[in-house]
Specification:
The protein is α/β, with parallel strands linked by helices and 262 residues long. The chain has helices spanning 40-47, 70-77, 95-106, 111-124, 140-151, 170-187, 198-204, 231-237, 241-253, and strands at 2-11, 14-24, 29-33, 55-60, 63-64, 80-83, 158-162, 190-194, 207-212, 215-220.
């Protein structure tokens, strides 16, 4: 579990995070949502230590990131998996080499042990047999799965995903959502996803944190979001005609609908 307690962050005198508090739960997909400029990306970067807030606490199972020594932060990073927006694969390395990279950096595994672990992770994301291919030889969706395999190679306790569906078609996006959800539940990971994708929000949002103008304005799950009374959240989620029609239908019929992927 990761707890954020009253964190504040300013840039050039402008306060971007204004006393944000939130809990990111273990074994659940925790989604951070909000409009561009809302502060959600700054929150995500603060969580992983790329930005240091001026005030507050960021607790990893009780350990305050903002009070850790350099050595403690280095150790914490071995417990963290990262999935970047553009996959961030090494073009000159094979698929297998990309997944092996964090094992070489952060473990004392033998060559055979690294290969075995990397192949297991690739198989877990449905890429058995793709070891020798290079990123340029596979699709964007496959690249994203390689990036997920690399992110879980160290068997992380915490997994951070920045816009994991960026640039993917709707069908592939659903597959990535379901894979992240399955891995989260299977391994009991605290997964934090920064996203604009409303299909992800309504499909796998077990714990949703809505950030608006630097404040945490709403927390709930994907079944609660349909009936939320926060106007800023409603405007953001139901900005498209399709989602507005879904909400109108629910209000007219008075029956709750549990969101799912078709």
């Amino acid at each position: 579990m990761i707890q954020v307690c009253d964190i504040e962050k300013s840039f050039d005198g402008t306060k971007v995070l204004k006393g944000v508090s939130a809990t990111f739960e273990t074994g659940k997909t925790n989604l951070i949502i909000g409009q561009s400029g809302s502060g959600k990306t700054v929150l995500m970067k603060s969580l992983v230590g790329l930005i240091r807030p001026e005030k507050g606490q960021i607790l990893y199972d009780g350990r305050d990131l903002l009070k850790m020594s350099r050595e403690q932060i280095q150790h914490l990073r071995t417990e963290i998996g990262m999935l970047f927006q553009g996959s961030a694969l090494f073009d000159s390395e094979t698929v297998l080499g990309n997944v092996e990279f964090p094992l070489m950096m952060y473990t004392n595994m033998s060559f055979a042990e690294r290969r075995k672990r990397a192949r297991f992770c690739l198989e877990r994301v449905g890429l058995k047999g793709a070891d020798a291919k290079f990123p340029s030889e596979i699709s964007g969706g496959m690249q994203k799965r390689v990036a997920i395999a690399r992110a879980i190679a160290l068997n992380p306790k915490y997994l951070f995903c920045d816009e994991p569906n960026s640039g993917l078609d709707p069908k592939t996006s659903i597959l990535i959502d379901e894979l992240l959800s399955d891995i989260t539940h299977e391994y009991g990971i605290t997964t934090v996803i920064n996203t604009h994708d409303m299909n992800s929000v309504l499909g796998i949002g077990e714990n949703i944190i809505f950030i608006n103008h630097g404040h945490r304005e709403w927390v709930g799950d994907n079944t609660m979001i349909y009936t939320a009374t926060n106007q800023a959240l409603t405007n953001f989620v139901f900005a498209t005609e399709l989602f507005q029609k879904v909400k109108d239908y629910m209000v007219a019929n008075g029956t709750p609908v549990t969101p799912h992927h078709e």
